[in-house]
Amino acid sequence: MIYLSRFSLQDVGMETAFLTYNCENRRTCYSSRYPFGVFSNRAVPPLELEPITILCGGNGSGKTTILNLMGEKLGLRRGTVFNRSSFFGDYLSLCRAEVAPVFQRGRGNSRVVTSDDVFDYLLDLRCTNENIAYRRRELLAEYADARYANFQMRSMEDYDRLRQVVDAQWHTGSRYVRDRVMNDVIEKSNGESAFAFFTKEIKEDGLYLLDEPENSLSPQLQRELCSFLEDSVRFYRCQFIISTHSPFLLAIRGAKVYDLDSIPIQACHWTELEHIKTYWQFFQEHQTELEECSPCS
User: Fold this and answer.
1) Contacts of 42 (CB under 8 A, 6+ apart)
2) Cβ atoms of residues 46 and 264 within 8 Å
3) What is the DSSP string of 40-60?
4) Under the phi-then-psi rule, with left for phi > 0, alpha for psi from -120 to 50, and beta for the rest, what region is 44?
5) I want to staple 175 with a disulfide (CB 3.0 to 4.6 A). Which of 88, 161, 171, 276 is the partner?
6) Distance between CA 148 and CA 164 in Å, rounded?
7) DSSP labels for 134-155?
8) Interstrand relation of 266-268 and 256-259 (parallel, antiparallel or unpaired)
9) What are residue 266's DSSP bridge partners?
10) Which runs of consecutive H residues, i.e. helices, occur in the chain?
11) What is the distance between the alpha carbons of residues 213 and 202, in angstroms, rounded to a whole number?
């Protein structure tokens, strides 16, 4: 499914003209006119988008900037805020997004997901778990007090205390606590919890802009995320636009990859990316060591 079919940034000429005639007297923060200037040294053609489109490039190449522009242009939900100068709206007004009619159906599910969203989710889980641990300690103290209490019921006002004492005397401490407090929310590693975040947030029928989703994920979990994304496209009518350096995500079947480091920016096969060649060279240099450690050797 394709909800966003094309996204166009302004060309260098439009950017220069706008800055010349509209920004001479505009006060800026630290002289920043972001996102003006991010792509001033590269021609950016209209981005033709597929069910899975990947933006790849080094730091400062504009991957996250493009996702932010797309998200704001389409009015997509997002969790964490992002840095934007007083010029962001001006730049955004010069961008163009072409959407399919079905986008209106998928708008409610669509959203921007950043690594900050995942990090905040992990922090919330940790905070929840710490509160549960504190409550567990309280209940263990309550259990010890009730189990060995010398208690006699004198009126109906003592009923709750009676039930507490009986429960403590009939059950172990762990059972007493388990019946009164939820199990730990965090029963998995950060990576497993991060993967669970994506499976929870990504619904059917939606456009998802994912900013470096590989953060916090082990190589194995990155491969599982790839399978999940492929299935979401194939069976659940989703579209993904992803910024990433992960070779596992770049190699997703059928993904269209844009190299933001190339001049001009253009689509390429993932194996042509410079950092993938660096990985390949590294493994070639250590081929003997890898073969010695291989379980098949």
Assistant:
1) 260, 262, 263, 264, 265
2) no
3) TTS----EE--SEEEEE-STT
4) beta
5) 171
6) 11
7) HHHHHHHHHHHHHHT------S
8) antiparallel
9) 259
10) 12-22, 63-74, 88-93, 103-106, 115-147, 159-170, 173-178, 190-201, 219-236, 247-250, 274-285, 287-293
11) 12
Torsion of the alpha carbons at 126, 130, 132 and 134, rounded to the nearest 10: 180
Q: Which residues contact 55 (CB under 8 A, 6 or more apart)?
A: 63, 66, 67, 241, 242, 243, 244, 258, 260
| pLDDT at 30 > cutoff 50 | no
The tokens for 274 are 């410079």
Residue 181: what pLDDT? 66
**Entry field: residues in the chain:** 297
> Is the model's pLDDT at 18 over the cut of 50?
yes
Cα(242)–Cα(37) distance, integer angstroms = 22
Q: Tokens representing 245?
A: 């350096």
Output the pLDDT for position 154.
75
CA distance 254 to 41: 29
Could you give the CA distance from residue 210 to residue 145 in angstroms, rounded to a whole number? Answer: 51
Residue 228 tokens, joined: 């999940």
DSSP 251-285: T-TT-EEEETTSSS-EEE-GGGSHHHHHHHHHHHH
Most confident of 159-168, 240-249, 261-270: 240-249
Inter-CA distances, 248 with 33, 217, 253, Å: 35, 11, 10
Phi/psi at 243 (5° precision): -100, 130
At residue 99, the 3 state secondary structure works out as strand
